[in-house]
Amino acid sequence: MIETTDSTDADVNVACHLARMAQAHPFKRAVVCPAGRDAAGRVTYAHLNFRQLDRESDQIAHGLLKTGIGPGTRTILVVRPGLEFFSLIFAIFKVGAVPVVVDPGMGIRRMLECFRSTRPQALVGIPLAHAVRSVFRKFFKTVRHRVTVGRRWFWGGPTLTQLRAREWTPFTAARRQRSDMAAILFTTGSTGPAKGAVYTHGNFEAQLHQIRTHLDFSADEVDLSTFPLFALFYPALGITAVVPDMDPTRPAQADPKRIIEAIENQGVTNMFASPALLERLGAYGRKQGTRLLSLKRVISAGAPVQARTVELFSELLADGAQIHTPYGATEAVPIASILGRETLSETRPLTEKGFGICVGQPIGGTAIRIIAVSDEPIRRWSDDLQVAQGEIGEITVKGGLVSPRYYENPLADSLAKIPENGEVWHRMGDLGWMDKKGRIWFCGRKSQRVITADGTLYTIPCESIFNTHPAVHRSALVGIGPRTNQVPVICVELRKDPPRIDRKALRAALLKLAQAHEITQGIRIILFHDAFPVDIRHNAKIFREQLAGWVQKQIKPKGIRRPRKTDAHHGRDVP
């Protein structure tokens, strides 16, 4: 197991971990990145060992300070995944600046609004990012310092090449308090406006501890993370990070051959992949008869992970390899986790009966409580907020890794944060319940619940029933009509591999399936959709709000029949 030395309250900086790893493992590869192909078509790789990464980030840190980027400087970072990303992010942490990180896949307008909301003081990015700044100047009025990663055009400021051209001298990382802001990480905005979650240096320390202790990494691990921000933590833990050959904004479209190629070339032992990518890799691997024998551990998160996806990918792994499906959010991750073998052997049958998806027990020192569902702010914590065991409510979490607030967004804070004696409970915006073993069962987003005249329906429990049909790839529950008097509709995306399907017969079969389960008996409308709209970060979360708009256009109000009374709060007497 990898060990790191905890920092004191007065000296907390995630960059300090890199310096320790550079001393302990100077010549071990820290970051590996595909650099091209040789004449025979084989992948060539570039890499930095831990000493090189530490020294290069030292050089850049000196340059950043000279440029005017120092402690507390809110710094937009827009670079492609690669060696420079790691050098820059650790340099930014070393000087005590605050990186502002936004998913570029969310679209230029939404991305610009995110940037403007943080009043950035610096921009470190590729030429395209600076070109965007030059065109949309009003969104970058506060930017005073600029660094170009690549060729500089007509704007000022140094290039990254110039920053690291100076001779290396050690750089002492800025001393930060645990409560000092370390980064602003934006949510995807999948169920509302994107929000900038403030991460403190204490949050990063807690995350590193949670990841290290829960996953029990050894000293010879090699990681492949298909989400760049997750890869950030691994060099700080002394783990080799391999950058995959893919577009990180479209993981569901990644070429399986290139991902498998990287796993085999680098002897990858640990991989993170979204559920959409994991299913894509599993389907490809099954057809090719692939076995990924180097993998000891696979982590999948970002959206509910279906049991059939776990089962499919398990076929590619060696005996003893584990699939972890942790649960969390941008504001708090990871807070709970379950192993794939427990999903397949124990919780899957309950999921298929409409109990939700089990995301496991709280990990580390994280506290999770289920409170009564409310869309209103909660001014202070009280144990009276909690619901009885087995009852569906909103999932709340408290712990060292929980982001304490959003950046200058008091409305979002009032809706998502509950103060308690100087600490904060974060309302996940997710609904679920806790079983007798203390496991959390996820039932969907609070904002996506469907409130009918006869009861409330929850997305994941209802959808899981329809997803059992072999012709269904995935389904989505939406409601149409007034918020408190909605009509439930199930949208169905079919699997691509089966032969041509008689949709009329399939609709009848799905309606019969709905009648066999109490919670879905009131669903009388089923519509087929070619391809669900999904989030840009993991390509897995379904945009049910967009689907609801589509459904509204498909159905004439006169054709809607009200469902008969149903009790959505069915008993949950599970082990």
Low-pLDDT parts are: 1-9, 561-575
Query: What's the alpha carbon Rg, rounded to whole Å?
Result: 24 Å
User: Looking at the structure, what is the overall shape?
Assistant: globular
Strand-residue proportion: 15-25%
What kind of oligomer do you see? single chain
The fold-level CATH name of the largest domain is Rossmann fold
Global mean pLDDT: 92
Q: What percentage of residues falls in helices of 4 or more residues?
A: 25-40%
What structural class do you assign from the helix and strand content? alpha/beta
| Number of distinct helices | 17
Kindly state the number of beta strands.
27
CATH superfamily of the largest domain: ANL, N-terminal domain
Main sheet characteristics: 8 strands, antiparallel
The CA-CA distance between the termini, in Å, is: 33 Å
Name of the CATH architecture of the largest domain: 3-Layer(aba) Sandwich
Can you give me a brief rundown of this structure?
The protein is an alpha/beta fold.
What does this protein structure show overall?
The structure is a single chain. The protein has 575 residues and is of the alpha/beta class. It folds into four domains: 1-240, ANL, N-terminal domain (Rossmann fold); 244-325, Rossmann fold (3-Layer(aba) Sandwich), CATH 3.40.50; 358-446, Luciferase, domain 3; 449-559, GMP Synthetase, Chain A, domain 3 (2-Layer Sandwich), CATH 3.30.300.30. It contains 17 helices and 27 strands. Helix 10 (256-266) crosses helix 11 and helix 11 runs parallel beside helix 12 (307-314). The longest helix is centred in the first third of the chain and has 18 residues, at 50-67. The protein starts with 14 loop residues before the first helix and ends in a 21-residue tail after the last helix.
